[in-house]
Specification:
Elements (H helix, E strand, L loop, with lengths): L2 H27 L3 E8 L2 E6 L3 E7 L12 E7 L2 E7 H4 L13 E8 L2 E7 L1 E8 L19 E7 L2 E6 L1 H6 L7 H30 L8 H24 L8 H15 L9 H8 L13 H10 L7 E7 L5 H13 L4 E8 L2 H7 L17 E3 L5 E3 L1 H6 E5 L11 E6 L8 H14 E9 L11 E6 L2 E6 L1
Parallel strand pairs: 2-10, 5-7, 11-12, 11-16, 12-15, 16-17
Antiparallel strand pairs: 1-2, 1-8, 3-6, 4-5, 6-7, 9-10, 13-14, 17-19, 18-19
Helix pairs in contact: 8-9
Length: about 475
């Protein structure tokens, strides 16, 4: 092959590469539609991500009588009572017998300002496509009424049926779903009335004269315990906050403060807003916000000496990624010669999906974050490549099996309190099993390791690091 032929070949290769690069850019530009994908009876489906508030696992829905067969009942979602529909039953798909206490996969949707839960077989991932590639539905999809199908689309060799949730929730078949809340409310009012009458009779009996009356201090203590019991129930029902040995000391202290502030007559938590006010001092410093230099330096002081070439961190409850990136920066400053690997997990699919794209306020450039930031072409700032590559975001519930390597640090602030007692024990045991011999566990500032676990402690200001004893 002569020199001229070689030049032409080289030019052809260059042209092909440029075309491929341009095609990639065009494809990325035209991804203008995202859907959350899931499966029903082995087939793949999708729902416009704009309707999906979050995904969840839940069971033991509260049964409501006289509702349609595809309505499983209602569920308390952080204080809001929402109807739960089984999408398989709605589409007349066979469902295996439901096991008691089994956790179901749920999509939490917001449609016309109404919140619903949809039970599906399996939730997959977020898929980005070009809206123009969505094709009209075909009568071949006979197992689902075609009026509920917005279209079909192929992505990565998978064919997805895109559902029109607005038609599902406004169809005549589901008109009575809104009656579920009303039925539930009436049911609970009846129960409340019965319980109130029973409590009144008990109180009347207590106040009746008795020759063997208990000391006054015991009656006061009993009243406080009863009030505390109601507070615990309210926190669980409205905010999925579980009072256990991990946080009971704080809850008791907070309840005493609450009594002094509100008085006995207004001490009960009546709604989600009351619970939010009660829990406001509980959450750890800088929850959901950027850390200041003092907090970053405090955290660095509790980190153990470690000469390993790679530092592995488990960060469940990462939310939108602010905490994970901040943690990665602290770790890089503490272990400058090590490769940092942070496994950041959360059950909020939307937050995890968008965490890698987190924008950084410009004012952080002059803060302690400065060395870890880089400027983009549009003038905005983001974390440098080393920090970005050190954090792996994934959708995962820490209650489930975690296929993680042994870790140097477990950073799980305020996560334990949002798990029921059984799950708390499971997760804490998992923390300790996956922790290396010289590793540490950091919980929320108002959470404590259960006394049944053997551990050591290192405390710096408000941060406590637990070690294997």
């Amino acid at each position: 092959m002569d020199l001229e032929s070689l030049k032409q070949l080289a030019q052809s290769v260059t042209d092909v590469a440029e075309v491929q690069t341009q095609e990639k850019k065009e494809n990325s530009v035209y991804i203008d539609f995202k859907m959350v994908t899931f499966s029903l009876a082995g087939k793949d489906y999708g729902i416009d991500i704009m309707y999906v508030k979050e995904i969840a696992k839940a069971g033991q829905f509260t049964y409501v009588p006289n509702v349609l067969p595809f309505v499983l009942g209602v569920y308390n979602l952080r204080g809001e009572i929402i109807p739960i529909l089984d999408l398989r039953l709605f589409f007349n798909i066979d469902v295996p017998p439901r096991k008691e206490n089994k956790l179901e996969n749920m999509l939490i949707l917001s449609v016309d300002e109404q919140i619903f839960g949809l039970v599906v077989d399996k939730i997959d991932k977020v898929v980005g496509i070009q809206k123009s590639t969505i094709q009209p539905p075909h009568p071949l999809f006979g197992d689902i009424n075609i009026k509920y199908i917005d279209g079909v689309v192929e992505s990565n060799k998978n064919l997805y049926v895109l559902l029109d949730v607005t038609k599902i929730f406004t169809s005549t078949d589901s008109e009575s779903v809104e009656n579920v809340k009303l039925s539930y409310t009436l049911q609970k009012r009846a129960e409340y009335s019965a319980n109130t009458n029973a409590v009144r009779k008990i109180e009347e009996t207590k106040t009746a004269p008795s020759a063997a009356a208990a000391p006054a201090v015991s009656a006061i203590d009993q009243k406080v315990e009863e009030g505390l019991k109601f507070v615990k129930e309210s926190l669980k029902n409205y905010k999925q906050f579980y009072v256990t040995a991990a946080n009971e000391d704080w809850v008791r202290r907070r309840y005493n403060e609450w009594l002094q502030t509100k008085g006995q007559s207004k001490a009960q938590l009546q709604n989600a807003d009351d619970c939010d006010e009660f829990l406001k001092p509980f959450w750890s410093s800088f929850t959901g916000s950027w850390w200041n230099k003092e907090y970053a330096e405090t955290l660095e002081k509790v980190l153990p000496d470690n000469s390993a070439k790679q530092i592995i961190v488990w960060n469940p409850g990462c939310s939108k990624g602010v905490e994970s990136y901040s943690l990665a920066c602290v770790l890089k400053n503490r272990y400058p010669n090590a490769k940092i690997r942070v496994y950041a997990q959360d059950v909020d699919l939307l937050s995890v999906s968008n965490a890698a794209l987190l924008s950084v306020p410009n004012n952080l450039v002059d803060d302690w974050y400065g060395p870890y930031l880089t400027k983009k072409a549009n003038g905005e700032y983001t974390f440098n490549q080393e920090i970005k590559e050190s954090v792996m975001f994934e959708y995962h519930d820490c209650k489930n099996t975690n296929a993680l390597p042994m870790v140097d640090v477990v950073f799980a602030r305020d996560v334990i309190s949002l798990l029921d007692e059984s799950a708390q024990q499971t997760v804490i045991n998992d923390f300790m099993e996956k922790l290396k011999g010289n590793g540490i566990v950091i919980l929320g500032e108002n959470e404590a390791m259960p006394s049944a676990i053997n551990f050591g402690e290192k405390t710096v200001n408000m941060i406590v690091a637990y070690t294997k004893d």
